[in-house]
């Protein structure tokens, strides 16, 4: 059987409680550049799209100055970033099941330097990571997940993504893998299921508590059969 079983984790809104911080930062950035008509609801629904794509999604055009302003606004929230309960434990549990743990984030490569410590996870648990620095098109395009999978030689049939937005679910589908969705990023269960999520849980702690009922357990069994 080609490839290995694994889990592709999103970070923002999935492992780190950052979606609402990003929403405020983007809204401030947009309003400071004259986009007063863009609401926080609209911005929140776009969180998870890479920066340039997010600006285009909410304004209909490109504006690099807004992207730069968002980075400055978000820096003020760095000390407020917290991991969701048991996020690191979920990653360790997946690793303990024999699944390769990889990360696919729309953030920049340098963000991993603070993201992993914020999650509280050890470097040796994470097999590989792909960031917006590695691709031309980030989520909802499949490129981020595809790079992470190719780097770790993951078998699409035995790999699942874990994310929190419809963009994660769409990116996973386009990469040929299933997606478990979490509602802790602020997107409702109905929207996530409509996008194609195979499972929906509240947060990492909820998924960890139901690990034996999840497709993750099936992936672990498939790995044991190798």
TrEMBL record:
Gene3D superfamilies: HAD superfamily/HAD-like, Putative phosphatase, domain 2. InterPro entries: HAD-like_hydrolase_sf (IPR050155), HAD-like_sf (IPR036412), HAD-SF_hydro_IA (IPR006439), HAD_2 (IPR041492), HAD_sf (IPR023214), PGP-like_dom2 (IPR023198). SUPFAM superfamilies: HAD-like. Pfam families: HAD_2. PANTHER family: BLL8046 PROTEIN, PHOSPHOGLYCOLATE PHOSPHATASE. This is Haloacid dehalogenase. It comes from Mobilicoccus caccae.
């Amino acid at each position: 059987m080609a490839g290995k079983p694994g889990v592709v984790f999103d970070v923002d809104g999935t492992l780190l409680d950052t979606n609402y911080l990003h929403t405020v930062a983007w809204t401030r950035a947009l309003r400071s550049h004259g986009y007063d008509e863009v609401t926080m609801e609209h911005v929140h629904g776009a969180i998870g799209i890479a920066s340039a794509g997010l600006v285009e999604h909410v304004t209909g055009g490109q504006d690099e100055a807004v992207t730069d302003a968002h980075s400055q606004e978000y820096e003020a929230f760095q000390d407020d970033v917290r991991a969701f309960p048991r996020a690191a434990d979920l990653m360790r549990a997946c690793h303990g099941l024999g699944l390769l743990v990889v990360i696919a984030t729309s953030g920049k490569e340098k963000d991993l330097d603070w993201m992993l410590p914020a999650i509280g996870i050890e470097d040796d648990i994470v097999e590989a990571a792909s960031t917006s620095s590695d691709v031309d098109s980030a989520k909802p395009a499949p490129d981020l997940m595809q790079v992470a999978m190719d780097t770790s030689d993951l078998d699409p049939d035995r790999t699942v993504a874990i994310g929190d937005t419809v963009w994660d679910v769409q990116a996973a589908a386009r990469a040929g893998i299933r997606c478990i969705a979490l509602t802790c990023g602020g997107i409702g269960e109905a929207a996530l299921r409509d996008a194609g999520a195979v499972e929906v849980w509240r947060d990492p702690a909820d998924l960890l508590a139901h690990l034996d009922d999840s497709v993750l357990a099936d992936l672990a069994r498939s790995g044991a059969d190798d």
